[in-house]
């Protein structure tokens, strides 16, 4: 067995980040990916002659990628073109009201003042300050720490700061203290869904997502997928081997240690270490072999994060001035989440996110077909419920009916539309039921229940959106780096001591 050979399972953001970090330290890395290309959830579809992002569309925390590329001796800006957004997102309600959030907080406060009155504008300023504090408190001891625990947090952050992150209050309740207008509670509560969670169950700590977004949202020229291409391109040039279109069916564990993987064609790849970026639910269910199953706790159905119904299309959109990111809010947010999270059904009226990928800040001026990605949250039931055409049609009626109530008409055609249901997401990401963000962040303990990089099996490491520090493109990239750092540290510790290797002295170098 070659201790310097590492197999990374998955070529999503976390796998690519881990592979880059490992190859930069001279390790021999093979990435095995069941899909035909890199990116994982960061994927694109081809509709006619157009490419469209149909995974993540909101790019934040660019510093994570600046650091990752820096560590490779590369500049992120040499590989992708990033353009900061002045208007972060437009928000609309069925009563015709609209609110834009800006990268400039003063402008947002003014807009909120016009929308809901002075007191809510002041509430927004207090909310922003508190959201920033939560992020600052958690950045080092939690988000960027390899395996944080309640004790390590207490030690590093202190009791007062820890209480400031408001772990015991729900996000929804906390928002009621800043905003009297229920539309603002809804707007800022939606940030819980970035972690696949309900604002009614997630802790107020998730206010930090609002801070992340207000710190900068960038457009990636050519689409988010360019990021995955850039990362895999650099990795390949540095010698990482990519094996696409094949599953890892078993992580080989011998004498209690991970020693390689077996592929679905029976081939074995021996390795000193294995990094898994598949969802931890797959690991826990034994989909990667029973030797490794004990390294992850099962995620009960009710703890699964949200899934989604998505429509990627090229179609004319009229009647509403869409921006790059526009959110259309349902009339009864609580009922929407009671349906999805409580009853595990599609809601009768969903909140709908539309990403207009040909609009770079301003509305389009004509009515020509454009690239649109449309998403409604859905329950993660894709492993036991098949979304049949009639049900998909009903979801479409509810989703597009909701958009029409806000004035937007999208003239989709079947030839230029790709639909993804929780069943499809479960097929693409086995073991998840279609949950897109690992375990939901419901309750104050949830964040500590995401596994860290090291596991009980020596040589086996975890990364990805279902591991610490959680979902989202930058977080998954951080987790890949953390898994690589832990692996490298363990290898260094396991290396034969130079003291014993040095004859006639105590030199360690
Ligand atoms: C529709 C959608 C919208 C989103 N929007 C945003 C957004 O706007 N902004 C944001 O920051 N985040 C967003 N996210 C979340 C973000 O995309 C993910 O958190 C992140 O991409 C996860 O990366 P990952 O590497 O952890 O996992 P993945 O991307 O899932 O990668 C894991 C890889 O492992 C592979 N794999 C699994 N099992 C095996 C096996 N047995 N053998 C070989 N390969 C295997 C899978 O095929 C996959 O490619 C969104 C996600 C979705 C789906």
How would you explain this protein's 3D organization?
There is one protein chain. The longest helix has 26 residues, at 118-143. The strands form 6 sheets. Strands 7-6-16-17-18-14-20 form a 7-stranded mixed beta sheet. The protein has a 5-stranded parallel beta sheet with strand order 9-2-1-13-21, with helices on one face. Helix content is 37%, strand content 19%. Strand 10 (248-254) and strand 11 form a beta hairpin. It is globular and about 70 Å long. The protein is an alpha/beta fold and 509 residues long. The protein has helices at 13-24, 62-71, 76-79, 105-116, 118-143, 150-157, 159-164, 171-178, 182-189, 207-214, 225-237, 280-284, 290-293, 333-343, 389-405, 422-428, 446-449, 473-494, 498-501; strands at 5-9, 28-32, 44-47, 50-53, 82-84, 87-93, 98-102, 218-220, 241-243, 248-254, 257-263, 268-270, 273-276, 307-315, 317-318, 325-329, 352-356, 370-378, 409-410, 417-420, 460-462. Mean pLDDT is 94; it is low at 498-509. Helix 1 (13-24) packs parallel to helix 11 and helix 1 packs parallel to helix 18. Flavin-adenine dinucleotide is lined by residues 9-15, 32-35, 40-42, 55-58, 247-248, 277-278, 282, 288, 308, 310, 375, 429, 436, 464-465, 471-473, 476.
């Amino acid at each position: 067995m070659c201790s310097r050979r590492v197999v990374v399972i998955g070529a999503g953001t976390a796998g690519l980040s881990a592979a880059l970090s490992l190859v930069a330290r001279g390790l021999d890395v093979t990435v095995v990916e069941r899909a035909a290309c890199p990116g994982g959830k960061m994927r694109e579809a081809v509709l006619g002659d157009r490419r469209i992002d149909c995974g993540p569309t909101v790019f934040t925390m660019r510093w994570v990628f600046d650091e990752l590329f820096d560590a490779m001796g590369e500049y992120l800006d040499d590989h992708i073109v990033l353009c900061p957004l002045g208007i972060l997102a437009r928000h609309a309600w069925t009563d015709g009201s609209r609110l834009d959030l800006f990268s400039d907080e003063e402008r947002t406060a003014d807009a909120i003042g016009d929308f809901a009155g002075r007191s809510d504008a002041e509430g927004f300023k207090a909310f922003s300050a508190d959201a920033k504090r939560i992020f600052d408190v958690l950045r080092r001891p939690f988000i960027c720490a390899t395996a944080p625990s309640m004790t390590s947090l207490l030690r590093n952050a202190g009791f007062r700061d820890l209480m400031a992150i408001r772990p015991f209050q729900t996000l929804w309740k906390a928002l009621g203290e800043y905003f009297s207008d229920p539309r603002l509670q809804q707007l800022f509560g939606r940030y819980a869904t970035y972690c696949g969670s309900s604002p009614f169950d997630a802790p107020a700590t998730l206010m930090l997502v609002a801070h992340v977004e207000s710190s900068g949202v960038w457009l990636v020229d050519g689409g988010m997928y360019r990021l995955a291409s850039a990362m895999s391109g650099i990795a390949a040039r540095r010698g990482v081997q990519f094996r696409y279109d094949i599953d890892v069916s078993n992580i080989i564990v011998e004498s209690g240690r991970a020693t390689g993987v077996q592929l679905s064609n029976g081939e074995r790849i021996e390795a000193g270490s294995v990094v898994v970026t598949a969802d931890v639910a797959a690991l826990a269910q034994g989909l990667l072999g029973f030797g490794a199953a004990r390294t992850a706790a099962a995620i009960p159905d009710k703890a699964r994060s949200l899934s989604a119904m998505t429509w990627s299309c090229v179609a004319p959109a009229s009647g509403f001035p869409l921006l790059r990111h526009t959110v259309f809010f349902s009339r009864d947010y609580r009922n929407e989440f009671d349906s999805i999270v409580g009853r595990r059904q599609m809601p009768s009226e969903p909140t709908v996110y539309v990403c207009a990928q040909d609009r770079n800040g301003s509305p389009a001026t004509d009515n020509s077909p454009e690239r649109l990605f449309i998403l409604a949250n859905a329950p993660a039931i894709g492993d036991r419920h098949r979304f049949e055409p009639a049900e998909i049609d009903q979801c479409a009626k509810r989703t597009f009916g909701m958009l029409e109530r806000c004035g937007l008409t999208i003239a989709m055609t079947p030839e230029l539309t790709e639909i993804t249901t929780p069943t499809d997401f479960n097929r693409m990401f086995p073991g998840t039921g279609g949950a897109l963000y690992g375990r939901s962040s419901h309750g104050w303990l949830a964040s500590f229940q995401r596994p860290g990089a090291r596991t009980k099996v020596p040589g086996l490491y975890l990364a990805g959106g279902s591991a610490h520090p959680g979902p989202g493109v930058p977080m998954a990239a951080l987790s890949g780096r953390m898994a690589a750092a832990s692996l490298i540290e363990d290898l260094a510790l396991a290396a034969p001591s130079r003291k014993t290797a040095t004859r006639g002295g105590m030199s360690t170098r």
